Amino acid sequence: MTSQITCFAKALNDITAQVQKGFQDLAALGRANAEAVVKSNAILLKGTEDLGRQVIVYAQTSFEKAAATRQSLLTAKSPRDLFTIQNAFARQSVQSLITENARLSHESAKIVQEAFAPIAARLEVTAATVSKPLAA
């Protein structure tokens, strides 16, 4: 009877140790996942700040070009010159906007991809961890 109790106590201690290790592993997994989210958010924040600065530079440059065009319009010698200057400015503005939009779209996609990388890595680790059977 004493050997049965000893055997039962040992088995209970082993199970308790496994459960405690499992909880510790899950807690570590949760911490690592939270750190990945924080890192991802930092990358996303920096990227959006950079994009914001780029948009401001583009807007400032466009404003300067518009001001220069306004000066040219004021010195036009004929209606034909006026329409030529305005047409060139409009064409250049539209082309510049299309180019800038494409560039910003590419940059945005790159930022999202970089920001998701830490989370994607953690998803792989988490899936591998939770799909492992408990040690017997």
What does this entry show, briefly?
This protein has 136 residues and is mainly α.
Provide the gyration radius in Å.
Answer: 32 Å
Helix content: over 70%
Q: What is the tally of helical segments?
A: 2
SSE order in H/E notation? HH
Helix-strand category: mainly alpha
In terms of DSSP E residues, the strand content is under 5%
Number of strands: 0
Number of domains: 1
The overall pLDDT average reads 91
Global outline:
rod-shaped
Q: What is the first-to-last residue Cα distance?
A: 25 Å
Q: Major beta sheet, specifics? A: none
Unreliable spans? none
Describe, in plain words, how this protein is organized in 3D.
The chain has two helices and no strands. The protein has helices spanning 2-74, 79-131. The mean pLDDT is 91. Helix content is 93%, strand content 0%. The chain is mostly helical and 136 residues long. The two termini are 25 Å apart. Helix 1 packs antiparallel against helix 2. The protein has one domain.
Q: What is the strand and helix layout of this fold?
A:
Blueprint: H1 2-74, H2 79-131
Helix pairs in contact: 1-2
List keywords for this structure.
136 residues, mainly alpha
